[in-house]
Amino acid sequence: MLFDIGDILYFYSPHAGYPKYHLCVLKIINDDAAKFLYLNSNNGFAADFIVSDTEIPCLPPSKTGKSIISCSQLILANKRQLKLYKVKKIGRLDKKIAARLLKFVKTTDALSNTDKKIVTNALSKIN
C-alpha cells in the first residue's frame, strides 16, 4: 500500500458497490489520514477540472469521454480504510496536467484555505 503525492489510486467502495478513483494530494504520515481529490466522469460543478479521457490513460474510458478531477472537497482515508477499500496504485498524474490543475485550483473558491494549500503544495511537487 505504498503511494505518493500525484499517484492515481483505485478504491473499491463497499458502500457504492463499484470502483472509485482518487488523486493523492497528501500521503499517510504516521497515523494521520491520507487526502485525495475524487476523480469522476460526470461534471456539472464549477469546481470540476475537466480533461479528456486520453489525458489520464490509467483510468477506464468513460461514457462522456472526459475525466473530471473534483476540486470541491478532500477525501480522507486512514490506513485501516485504505486496506478495507483494497487501494491500488494504477498510475500517476502527468506533470503537464498537474501544472494546469494547479492553475485551476488557485482560482477556485470551493476548497477551504487549508485544503487549497494542501492541494497546491501537492501539485507543485509533481514532476
Structural summary, described in words:
The structure is a single chain. With 127 residues, this protein is of the alpha+beta class. Helices cover 25% and strands 35% of the residues. It is built from three helices and six strands, in the order βββββαβαα. The protein has helices spanning 79-84, 95-107, 113-125, and strands spanning 7-13, 18-26, 34-40, 48-52, 66-77, 88-92. Strands 4-5-3-2-1-6 form a six-stranded antiparallel β-sheet. Helix 2 (95-107) packs antiparallel against helix 3. The radius of gyration is 14 Å and the shape is globular. The mean pLDDT is 91.
Question: Summed up, what is this model?
Answer:
This protein has 127 residues and is an alpha+beta fold. The chain contains 3 helices and 6 strands; from the N terminus they run βββββαβαα.
